[in-house]
Amino acid sequence: MKDPLVAPETRHGLPGHAARRGPGHPEQRARLGGAVGASTAGARDTAIAGPDGGLAGPPAQTGLPPDAFPGAEFEPFGLDDVLAVLDLAGDATPPLPVRTLRSLHGGVLAAQQLAQQIVLAERLAPSKSTQTLHTVFPNPSRWDAPLDVDVEWLQSGRTFANLALTFRQAGRAISRGDVLLGADEPDFVRHEATPPAPIDGPAAARPVDYPLLPWEVRLAPGPRPYSLDVWQRIPGVSADPALARGLLAFASEPWTGHHVANSHVQRGTATLAPGERLAAAVLAETVTFVEDLDVREWHLLRVESPHAGRGRYLGHGRVHTADGRLCAVFECLGMLRATAIT
């Protein structure tokens, strides 16, 4: 696997790479298409739900065309590549050039943008940590085109900082992340969420090879329909809290749309007519952090979709340590619909 980091030309001091027509090239796109937010939905062997919310077989059993879901054999990048695109400094003058990961659908991964926005914001405000990030994805993008970030400071004080990070290609905004950062403070009051139940731990979950999350991932049925328990850990990364939050945001994005699509496929409530493909994209996502998390240790993302309809799906999730402590919550709104193959 070569050059999963794409910088089509040498600009602002970043080394250029020649763009190859690999699986992520726009001319090689699969039928599960990304638009606007370029969701990372994909991978045939993951997050497949049966009618009761449990795990079942691959979508190929449902009557959808075999290439309606990208194959699990697609491996666009590794952990080192993810860490490289998150190697960001806060001492450069905007607009800041950033690197991109190769993608299957041809767009810049929404997961990558969420992670970069968190890490960059914390590099720009090094005495503070991300409290919450809200990102919208208004326009399509290309992984093989130059990508820059504009920085707008809304406020910066001793306790809080607010800034907006706009990712642009050819002058057009492909995402805007509004980030609230805060300095650490002692407790005035404290209460915590009840640990999730049931929780059997990662040993009882099924290991999967999910190419878009190149670290240890295990899946288990969620407690309700359209829910999923995702156990993960990322050994070998540094103990950098900003990086941990960025990687957690990266991991929060792919699951909901993919799981909703697969759940409906298994129930027989999602079908494609001849000449159609699935189109999936995240439109907006919010990630809020309440406690620090060591991503090198096992942690649980409990993902759930309370509603889907009118071409949209709503997803939310909670992130817990292995002993049940709540560390973060996230919510996403996405598009999921059938569209004609062009």
What order do the helices and strands come in, and which of them pair?
Layout: E1 5-6, E2 33-34, H1 79-85, E3 96-97, E4 100-101, H2 110-124, E5 129-136, E6 148-156, E7 160-169, E8 172-182, E9 206-208, E10 216-221, E11 227-233, H3 241-252, H4 255-267, E12 276-289, E13 299-309, E14 312-321, E15 326-340
Parallel strand pairs: 2-12
Antiparallel strand pairs: 1-4, 3-6, 5-8, 5-12, 6-7, 7-8, 9-10, 10-11, 11-13, 12-15, 13-14, 14-15
Helix pairs in contact: 2-3
Task: Give a written overview of the molecule.
It is a single chain. The protein has 342 residues and is of the alpha+beta class. It has helices at residues 79-85, 110-124, 241-252, 255-267, and strands at 5-6, 33-34, 96-97, 100-101, 129-136, 148-156, 160-169, 172-182, 206-208, 216-221, 227-233, 276-289, 299-309, 312-321, 326-340. The strands form two sheets. Strands 2, 3, 5, 6, 7, 8, 9, 10, 11, 12, 13, 14 and 15 form a 13-stranded mixed beta sheet that branches. A hairpin with a 2-residue loop joins strand 13 (299-309) and strand 14. Helix 2 runs antiparallel to helix 3. The radius of gyration is 19 Å and the shape is globular. Mean pLDDT is 82; it is low at 1-35 and 39-73.
